[in-house]
């Protein structure tokens, strides 16, 4: 238990003494030492003082010139785009995703291409046997790649093996939840084991200059399983998203210390593995010659990449007394409720007795607030059975007051729409004018936009 430390301070000169005495030893004044309460002293504090005994560290100026970290291209352009240009030496990357989404397939393809390019790559699988990984590599057509392969779960065995030779340029651990450290007790996958195993692997990567990739399991709500500190320990966190019933997969950067966040890479799952999609806008659009009610094209923005997606809405009138249903796929259900409320309160439209279904085509997930106006256009089109012009795109953020607010990076959105043959854009009033080759129609309020959609 901590015990208080007594000290006596001279009221004349401020000298401190650990015992009382009649005369101050420094100023020779009498009866000036007064007891004062000191700090509590624990046995640890008495023996360990961190203000001394360490080594001096070098402090550099913020504006000092340093070389930028070199990138190691993975050979998969969409993968490099999400990483910010490629792997960085001595970096740690965590990639998570649902089971069977294609994490191991993507990493095996990238490892094979890097190995064929002359890089030293090691792939350690804790979930599959080495023969299973070889069979997958043969199916993907990369069975001849000189990738060093092992099936192990002991962190001590892995680091002992890698420390005895030249460290690899890229080390893939599939997955971190299967690794086990004998320094602490606990089964693989527990919070303490995941944290300890990741810490040892990251320390090895930082000391030996190896780019480390950790595969992480996800929970039922989509977040990476294990301690939250795992995402803080690594330099980059990637999320591999998509529906297994759909062909397309999206690799999204959630955290990146060496590049921008919210960058995405788009892949298509095929028989021979994952193939890159250079123009994702063409994949999420339905090609038709005439307009269809309830559909709107929205130019979404993922980082610096514009992606055109199709928003589909269906409004079904019900008999009186029935409870209407609201179903959303690929968008925030709370955001849909807000748009419906604004349409009813500010524009005089009624959705109280109608079921509303909203879908983002192609399994894409939209998180951009600029989708409000496109969703409103699809809802008004489905309710009035008047199609949105087939050559038009719509974007803008809707406020609760009914105002249509401008959004960021309008030029990129309009440029992408123009590349795919669109001629008109329905945008906020503040952004009308320079459409980059497209005819823009601006709206100050959502009420004006509804009047335009209804042809009034």
From TrEMBL:
Q: Which PROSITE patterns match?
A: RECA_2
Q: Which GO terms describe its biological process?
A: recombinational repair
GO terms (molecular function) for this protein are: ATP binding; ATP-dependent DNA damage sensor activity; damaged DNA binding; hydrolase activity; zinc ion binding
Which annotated residues bind ATP? 97-104
Positions of the UniProt region annotated as Lon-protease-like? 355-456
| Keyword list, A-Z | ATP-binding, DNA damage, DNA repair, DNA-binding, Hydrolase, Metal-binding, Nucleotide-binding, Stress response, Zinc, Zinc-finger
Under Gene3D superfamilies, the record lists: 3.30.230.10, P-loop containing nucleotide triphosphate hydrolases (3.40.50.300)
Q: What does this protein do?
A: Plays a role in repairing double-strand DNA breaks, probably involving stabilizing or processing branched DNA or blocked replication forks. DNA-dependent ATPase involved in processing of recombination intermediates, plays a role in repairing DNA breaks. Stimulates the branch migration of RecA-mediated strand transfer reactions, allowing the 3' invading strand to extend heteroduplex DNA faster. Binds ssDNA in the presence of ADP but not other nucleotides, has ATPase activity that is stimulated by ssDNA and various branched DNA structures, but inhibited by SSB. Does not have RecA's homology-searching function.
Q: Which family does it belong to?
A: Belongs to the RecA family. RadA subfamily.
- Name-wise, this protein is DNA repair protein RadA
Native species:
Sphingomonas jinjuensis
């Amino acid at each position: 238990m901590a015990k208080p430390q007594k000290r006596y301070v001279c009221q004349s000169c401020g000298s401190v003494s650990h015992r009382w005495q009649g005369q101050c030893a420094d100023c020779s004044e009498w009866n000036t030492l007064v007891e004062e309460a000191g700090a509590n002293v624990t046995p640890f504090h008495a023996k360990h003082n961190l203000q001394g005994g360490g080594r001096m560290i070098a402090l550099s100026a913020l504006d000092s010139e340093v070389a930028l970290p070199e990138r190691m291209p993975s050979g998969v352009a969409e993968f490099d785009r999400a990483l910010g240009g490629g792997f960085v030496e001595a970096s740690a990357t965590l990639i998570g995703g649902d089971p069977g989404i294609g994490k191991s397939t993507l990493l095996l393809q990238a490892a094979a291409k890097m190995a064929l390019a002359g890089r030293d790559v090691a792939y350690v699988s804790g979930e599959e046997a080495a023969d299973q990984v070889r069979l997958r590599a043969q199916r993907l057509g990369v069975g001849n790649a000189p990738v060093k392969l092992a099936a192990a779960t002991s962190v001590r065995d892995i680091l002992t093996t890698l420390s005895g030779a030249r460290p690899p340029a890229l080390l893939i651990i599939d997955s971190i939840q299967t690794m086990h450290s004998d320094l602490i007790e606990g089964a693989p996958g527990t919070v303490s084991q995941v944290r300890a195993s990741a810490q040892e692997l990251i320390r090895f990567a930082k000391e030996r200059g190896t780019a480390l990739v950790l595969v992480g399991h996800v929970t039922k709500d989509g977040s990476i399983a294990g301690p939250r500190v795992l995402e803080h320990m690594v330099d980059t966190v990637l999320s591999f998203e998509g529906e297994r019933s759909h062909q397309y997969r999206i690799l999204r950067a959630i955290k990146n210390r060496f590049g921008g966040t919210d960058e995405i890479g788009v892949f298509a799952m095929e028989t021979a593995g994952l193939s890159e999609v250079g123009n994702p806008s063409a994949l999420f659009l339905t090609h038709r010659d005439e307009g269809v009610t309830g559909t709107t094209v929205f130019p979404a923005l993922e980082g610096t990449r514009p992606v055109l997606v199709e928003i589909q809405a269906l409004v079904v009138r019900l008999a009186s007394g029935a409870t209407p249903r609201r179903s959303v796929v690929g968008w925030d259900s709370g955001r849909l409720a807000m748009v419906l409320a604004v349409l009813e309160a500010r524009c005089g439209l009624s959705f109280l007795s109608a079921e509303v279904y909203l879908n983002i085509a192609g399994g894409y997930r939209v998180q951009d607030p600029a989708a409000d106006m496109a969703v409103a256009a699809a809802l008004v089109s489905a309710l009035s059975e008047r199609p949105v012009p087939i050559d038009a795109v719509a974007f803008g953020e809707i406020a609760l007051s009914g105002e249509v607010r401008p959004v960021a990076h309008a030029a990129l959105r309009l440029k992408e729409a123009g590349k795919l043959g669109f001629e008109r854009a329905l945008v906020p009033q503040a952004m009308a004018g320079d459409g980059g080759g497209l005819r823009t129609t601006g709206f100050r309020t959502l009420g004006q936009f509804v009047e335009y959609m209804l042809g009034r």
